[in-house]
Specification:
The chain has two domains: 2-105 and 305-340, 3-Layer(aba) Sandwich (Rossmann fold), CATH 3.40.50; 107-297, Rossmann fold (3-Layer(aba) Sandwich). Helix 1 crosses helix 12. The strands form three sheets. A seven-stranded parallel beta sheet has the order 10-9-8-11-12-13-14, sandwiched between helices. The chain has a five-stranded parallel beta sheet with strand order 4-1-5-6-7, sandwiched between helices. The protein has helices at residues 12-20, 63-71, 89-95, 107-123, 125-133, 159-170, 184-189, 196-202, 222-227, 245-254, 284-289, 306-324, 328-340, and strands at 2-5, 21-22, 27-28, 31-34, 52-55, 76-79, 98-100, 151-155, 174-178, 192-193, 205-208, 232-236, 257-262, 295-297. The protein is an alpha/beta fold and 342 residues long.
Length: 342
Amino acid sequence: MKIAIYSTKSYERPLLDHANSVGASGSPAHELLYLDARLSAATASLAAGCEAVSIFVGDDGSGAVLQALHAGGTRLLALRSAGFNHVDIEEAHRLGLTVLRVPAYSPYSVAEHAVGLMLTLNRKLHRAHNRVREQNFSLDGLMGFDMHGKAAGVIGTGKIGEAVCRILLGFGCRVLASDPTPNPDCESLGVKYVPLAELYTQSDIISLHCPLTPTTHHLINAAVLASMKPDVMLINTSRGGVIDTRALIAALKSGKVGSVGLDVYEEEGDLFFRDLSEQVIQDDIFVRLITFPNVLITAHQGFFTREACAAIAQTTIQNVSDFNMGSIAEANRVTARLIAGK
């Protein structure tokens, strides 16, 4: 099949080429058309004649764009991500456009990044690094806390959330969790499932690992933030829309929230995955957010390990191959499950 691959980066191409090679000869299984451009209404025509289109989290999978792709001959949308909130799944289903994703690649990559944010914020490693580079060896303002014995709340205990629970238990944290479907493996480790309201009020650290759905949109809002412990640490490596950013800024200004680590942002589509260092950022909310000394933001790099990127490439190509080999009925069942939010 001919695959138009939008938003491709230099690090992805060799991984996709390797995943696309077949047998000892290394001959390609599919024709890959690499596109630097993001998918949008203006760029959808670049995929004309391609039966499959692959997109990343910053691409536009809205109904109008999907209609343009379908008109150009596209029948499969292969996501290079686990999340699918950037795609109009119902419109894809109406068009008969199959949507496949990468539900699991390396849960450790995101989990380890989340805990890395916790450690950096707690011990102010980013601030300490900058001080030492300026020959300032003062410890004023750098005091952290022992994570051992602290209550850590994990919202969402799929593969990533489970990995976070295991790491935090290794630190000696008392781990609380909330998920509509409790994970038996987490329970066997000693993780205690509690109602969300209890998790908010008892946790010293809260880490978000839930998908973005209508139910979880702005799950962390002004009322929820007000119910949290004073000086709480909040970590989000899931999706930006899970947090109401305006409410978060208000909680930071009031001192209610002690520190925040974000690898995602509500309006990241206009910012992340490109170099804007020579431009004036127009997003006033984001600009305000990065002024706080107790906020650490990374540009959606939680997935960014060699192992995870290789797995994403492999699964993406395998999804296309499965579709091409006639596994269309199962693929459409997958799309239906996405619509149902399962």
